[in-house]
Q: What sequence folds into this?
């Protein structure tokens, strides 16, 4: 029996590969190929849990300190969103809230659903779960908005005693949470959702065979 093997590095598709061979070497880029990523579920779970842990200090610790005309202010992610709302910048506040609070939580919850579906060998809504995984990978690119914003402001706004911006430890924790969540997404092999054997329903089990 032969199967098709796909290289995740250079996207080369190898056809007519013997199913008895567990690993192959890509002839184009020399990457090691696997039918399924080794220990995918364990790695994805570990990265997801670590990312969830890092979200706690990321939302508790301050991420940015601003000194303007001798007045200093330190903000966490949530207090920064509240300040933007109070200043009438609702659009920016919604973007920061979605990218820095809502998206990381949605990614972790979605990964938890995917990991649970594979772990419990659930065969329900596998097509929808595959689309959920594709959506998680798509929105992951927007999770670093806060980090890029702080880095830009810290480099651009440095005017001595007039105005200055300084990053705080919360940015490091948030960046770590984002990176860990990306690792959790990339190490999850969505093909595991389709490796589960089909289980017949009770009606199908009791149905008499057709002569």
A:
């Amino acid at each position: 029996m032969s199967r098709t093997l796909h290289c995740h590095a250079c996207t080369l598709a190898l056809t007519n590969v013997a199913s008895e061979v567990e690993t192959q070497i890509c002839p184009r880029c020399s990457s090691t190929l696997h039918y399924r990523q080794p220990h995918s579920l364990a790695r994805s779970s570990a990265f997801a849990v670590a990312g969830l842990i890092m979200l706690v200090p990321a939302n508790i610790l301050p991420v940015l300190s601003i000194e303007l005309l001798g007045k200093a202010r330190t903000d966490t992610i949530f207090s920064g969103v509240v300040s933007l709302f109070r200043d009438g910048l609702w659009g920016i506040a919604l973007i920061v809230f979605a990218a820095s609070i809502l998206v990381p939580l949605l990614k972790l919850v979605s990964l938890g659903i995917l990991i649970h579906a594979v772990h419990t060998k659930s065969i329900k809504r596998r097509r929808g779960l595959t689309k959920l995984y594709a959506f998680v990978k798509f929105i992951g690119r927007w999770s670093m908005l806060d980090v890029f914003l702080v880095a830009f402001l810290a480099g651009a706004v440095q005017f001595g005693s007039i105005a200055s911006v300084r990053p705080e430890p919360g940015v490091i924790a948030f960046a770590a949470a984002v990176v860990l969540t990306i690792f959790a997404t990339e190490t999850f092999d969505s093909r595991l959702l389709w490796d589960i054997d089909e289980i017949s329903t009770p009606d199908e089990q009791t149905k008499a065979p057709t002569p």
